[in-house]
Write a structure and sequence with these properties.
single chain, mainly alpha
């Protein structure tokens, strides 16, 4: 059981970090031809922050998705992140009050932000049908199960099936990760 949880948490943290780095740099001049320079170093920092967070008893420190909104409106220097961090620290005083707000009340605001972050028609027209199917499936699985690991597994399975259908041989590492994630999900949810 513990191995399954470790695999699921690793996959979520690793792929989440890669997705955030690629997604957040997409609206900047940092990304060149779909490649993020020095991504390895950025992932090292993210990994160290994850380990550091667990050592002090905190949840995983990751790149914040909210940065995408800031980048889209022009925040590029890091000052917006510092201000956001200070405001979040100030909000810690009001965290007991936030507990009074039901989750249903926040859902509308989260949906509004999510819809605002969706790419426009120009970007969507450049994405292939397989990638759109994967994204839509992962969104649907996340919305219905509230389980990111199951959504990630669904996306990986669809990708591997599409590669096999095209006559391409999927990479060994990706196949191994998919099998490990499937094992972790089945152990976690008692499907195996």
């Amino acid at each position: 059981m513990a191995i399954g949880m470790v695999l699921v948490l690793f996959a979520l943290d690793f792929f989440g970090s890669v997705a955030k780095l690629v997604g957040l740099s997409a609206n900047t001049s940092i990304q060149r031809v779909g490649q993020v320079p020095r991504i390895r170093q950025a992932l090292y920092v993210d990994g160290l922050a994850t380990v550091g967070g667990s050592l002090v008893g905190s949840t995983s420190f990751v790149t914040f998705v909210e940065s995408g909104v800031g980048i889209r409106v022009g925040a590029r220097t890091g000052i917006a992140s510092v201000v956001t961090g200070m405001l979040l620290a100030g909000c810690a005083l009001f965290s007991p009050v936030a507990g009074w707000i039901p989750a249903d009340a926040a859902a509308g605001a989260l949906l509004f932000v999510a819809l605002g972050l969706l790419p426009g028609h120009a970007v969507l027209s450049k994405i292939g049908p397989v990638a759109l199917a994967i994204a839509a499936t992962m969104a649907a699985v996340t919305a219905t199960t509230e389980a990111l690991d199951q959504a990630l597994l669904a996306g990986l399975v669809i990708f591997l099936i599409s590669e096999l259908a095209r006559g391409r041989k999927p990479g060994l590492v990706l196949s191994l990760i998919t099998v490990l994630l499937a094992g972790g999900v089945s152990l976690q949810y008692g499907l195996g």
